[in-house]
Design goal:
Layout lengths: L1 E8 L5 E8 L2 H10 L3 E7 L6 H7 L4 H16 L4 H11 L3 H15 L4 H6 L7 H13 L2 H24 L2 H30 L7 H16 L3 H16 L2 H11 L5 H23 L3 H11 L3 H9 L1 H5 L4 H6 L7 H13 L2 H57 L1
Antiparallel strand pairs: 1-2, 1-3
Helix pairs in contact: 3-4, 3-8, 4-5, 7-8, 8-13, 8-19, 9-10, 9-19, 10-19, 13-14, 13-19, 14-15, 18-19
Length: 403
């Protein structure tokens, strides 16, 4: 028996949806028509053999959240009710997991629960930042405006992250190509060449012996590298998820030349954009600082902002709080925020800061990529030269002996 989903008009001319079991499409249609239904649409249920596995591995990406925010903003602007907007969005998402999340939110909204409370039941997908802004929008009756601010923040953040990652695509391809090339030579080329050289009872150069040793190890023991690499990645990820491990990592990246500039600008862009959106949405200033701290990707920025909340609650200006961390917040940041506080246009000034640092990050990432490329080419040249010297040196010595 197969399951069919249908939409139809019943005897009272009411539009209904449902499902029916039948041996085939024709039998299902006959059963519905005999029951007095006028069929609008009928389709076979798709069998999901690995549905649970797919649901487990299907995540919710930044694109999914932007899609959700944009659709709700558009539909609320068009006057569609919030619960219906969520239901319509759930029907269109491609992520199975996110679809389940939205269906749960829809059911909770049908029961009369506040929207921010529904979102808060899924903290893995909706951050405190997101939920708090929605909460303010519901209380103020400006949910539509809040979605507009959220969409601006999400799209800017996504663009920032995407450009940073795309700049590393070319270096990553070069590194992968180098690894594949070296592995191929070690497995298929070097053994044949060194096999010929080993037949002659001559002392081989050190470079040749090293190359032969590497080739032997990769052929006979190379498979052991796969579980070792997987274990290392797992251990490192687990360490970085601990507060102490993340703090040490964040400290390290802030000390690496060129990279530290990108990290600082990236976090300043996020800080300015997030705080701007929160203030525009009407979130209280001290609460906005706390939420902005959670948005920061570097734990040094999180600690600096959270330690300043108490001072801000006592009336200290944000400018003075940030001035205590000159390495994290450059003078231009503190001064522009100071001007914004004095003129009462802090959100406007933060928007300008966010735009400035987003452009600066794009430039810095592009410059870093241009520096990495020649370094990678030098690495390729060194690898090729090492292999060539290791192979050709004993051949030259052997030729000199024959003469």
């Amino acid at each position: 028996m197969a399951t069919f989903f249908y939409t139809a008009l019943d005897k009272a001319n009411n539009f209904v949806k449902g499902k029916i079991e039948a041996n085939n499409f024709k039998k299902a249609k006959e059963q519905l028509e005999s029951g007095g239904f006028l069929i609008v649409n009928i389709k076979l249920e798709k069998k999901q053999r690995f549905e649970n596995i797919k649901t487990f591995f299907s995540g919710v990406s930044r694109v999914d959240l932007i899609f959700f925010t944009r659709h709700l903003f558009t539909m609320l602007e068009a006057g569609i009710a919030l619960d219906q907007a969520v239901n319509i969005t759930a029907e269109q998402v491609t992520s199975r997991k996110f679809k389940e999340v939205l269906e749960d939110i829809y059911k909770r909204l049908q029961k009369g629960q506040p929207f921010h409370h529904c979102l808060a039941q899924h903290p893995r997908y909706f951050s405190k930042f997101y939920v708090s802004i929605i909460k303010v929008g519901e209380k103020s009756g400006k949910l539509h405006e809040v979605f507009s601010h959220l969409l601006e923040q999400q799209e800017s953040d996504y663009e920032l992250v995407t450009r940073a990652r795309s700049a590393m695509v070319y270096p990553s391809v070069i590194v992968c190509a180098l690894i594949v090339m070296v592995t191929f030579m070690m497995i298929f080329v070097i053994p044949k060449v060194t096999g010929i050289l080993s037949e002659y009872k001559v002392q081989l150069p050190l470079a040749t012996r090293i190359l032969m040793g590497l080739s032997y190890f990769i052929i006979h023991w190379g498979w052991t590298l796969i579980p070792v690499i997987i274990a290392l990645v797992f251990i490192i990820r687990k360490i970085l998820r601990t507060p102490k491990g993340k703090w040490r990592w964040d400290t390290l990246v802030l000390k690496i030349p060129r990279l530290n500039k990108i990290i600082i600008e990236f976090n300043l862009a996020r800080f300015a954009r997030a705080l701007c959106v929160l203030l525009k949405s009407g979130v209280p200033f001290d609460q906005a600082i706390e939420l902005t701290a959670d948005v920061s990707s570097n734990s040094h920025y999180t600690k600096a902002l959270k330690s300043g909340i108490g001072f801000i609650q006592r009336g200290v200006n944000l400018t003075e709080v940030l001035a205590a961390y000159p390495k994290l917040f450059p003078p231009i940041t503190s001064r522009m925020i100071g001007v914004g506080e004095k003129t009462g246009k802090l959100d406007h000034m933060l928007h300008k800061l966010a735009t400035f640092y987003e452009k600066s990050v794009n430039t810095s990432v592009g410059n870093l990529a241009s520096v990495i490329e020649p370094v990678l080419l030098l690495c390729i040249g060194f690898t090729v030269a090492f292999v060539a010297i290791s192979v050709l040196t004993p051949i030259w010595k052997f030729s000199a002996t024959v003469q």
